[in-house]
Amino acid sequence: MLGSALALTVVGVLFVHSTTADGEPFPSLSARGQMVKAAIALVGLLIASRMEYLWLEKRAYMIYCLVAVVLLGMLGVKAASGGINRFISLYVFQVQPSELMKIGLVLALSRYLRFREDQRQVQGLLGPFTLTLVPMALVLFQPNLGLSLMFPPVLIAMLFVAGAKPRHLFFAVLLGVLLLPAAYFLSGVVPLLKGYQKDRLESFVKRDSTSLRNQGYQLRQSIIAVSSGGVTGQGFQEGTQNVLGHLPEKHTDFIFSIIAEELGFVGASILVALYLTLIWGTLRVATFTREPFGRLVATGIAVGFGAQAFENIGMTLGLTPITGIALPFVSLAGSNLVASHLAIGIVLSIASRHVPVVATRDLSPRERKRLLLLHDDRAAGLISTRWAVD
């Protein structure tokens, strides 16, 4: 898991250089900045991995509320000044609090769901849905459509691990799928989407010659870049779309297109394999962690990585709408890089710490006569405590 994250980080530095060098020797100015951000991110990973993760359980709601208050304050500044307000400037760095909200939401949901049983009832879903909709709305109004759409998959996965009924999850997924079309058609009444965001959705659905020359231009150039890579690619810093600068946002949201152009199908497949390895390792931690809070946290982080990587790669290939979201560990996006490494550090902490959990299957009939605090060996969210009596 750690090896995959480090490999993806190295790929990110290399291709940030490739997409921003403009003739400069390695590393370019942007690549040097990415290396500094990666160093900060690795320090954060080390600190998080050494931390007792149950310390986060006690402060999960506080972390969630703190980031939510910051996002709310940013909306207030945006309302006063107009325009877009996604970042907080700190001298030479810009911080994007919405990236940290992904971790805050996972921690809050894990704290809420760890010992509850009412999520198997419809009314029991109100709490986790509210916890998710609040940051989703705060991020959407920044506006940041892509990042706001990453919260629902995390919620659904964590509810599944917590023991929610499949039919409730099915309706939740259906509601989530209908959310984007509803936001599009209701944007005239409720301004949920900006004009350029509506154009992106239209270009995804309507791909005629007129659309591809206007709002669909970026998608067209991305598909040209990916398809021109062939099997082995055109070579590092030799991609036509990269060198000629035809593809907008090639160093951030569309960096995968340049990787596919310069390394071809083989290189793009290796990159996808690194993400699958990362997600598989994180899910293994969730599977073998019997402590419910740690299991839920690892699940949420794994699904968060999977959803974001899928959306970014999918939009470069025309499989999903263009929403403007970074490729984890790889895109030129410092806050995403730091948040991703912090998340890996938390999972490493969960994997490396043994938290004793007593389950009914651990006890022999003779030992059950003792007065013990038991955790039923059930789904994470259905674990309950009681005093065992003979």
Textual characterization of the structure:
With 390 residues, the chain is mainly alpha-helical. Helices cover 64% and strands 3% of the residues. The protein has helices spanning 2-20, 29-50, 54-58, 60-81, 97-113, 126-140, 145-148, 151-162, 166-185, 195-205, 209-213, 217-228, 240-244, 255-288, 292-317, 334-352; strands at 88-90, 93-95, 373-375, 385-387. The strands form 2 sheets. Strands 1-2 form a two-stranded antiparallel ribbon. Strand 1 and strand 2 form a beta hairpin. Helix 1 runs antiparallel to helix 14 (255-288), helix 8 (151-162) packs antiparallel against helix 15 and helix 14 packs antiparallel against helix 15.
Low-confidence stretches: 383-390
Topology as a string of helices (H) and strands (E): HHHHEEHHHHHHHHHHHHEE
Mean residue pLDDT:
84
Measured between the Cα atoms of the first and last residue, the distance is 45 Å
Gross morphology is globular
Derived from helix and strand composition plus strand pairing, the structural class reads mainly alpha
| Beta-strand content estimate | under 5%
- Percent of residues in helices comes to 55-70%
Kindly report the spatial arrangement of strands forming the biggest sheet.
1-2
- Based on DSSP secondary structure assignment, what is the total number of beta strands? 4
Compute the number of helices. 16
Q: Main sheet, how many strands, which sense, barrel?
A: 2 strands, antiparallel
Instruction: Provide the gyration radius in Å.
Output: 22 Å
This entry's quaternary arrangement is: single chain
The total number of structural domains is 2
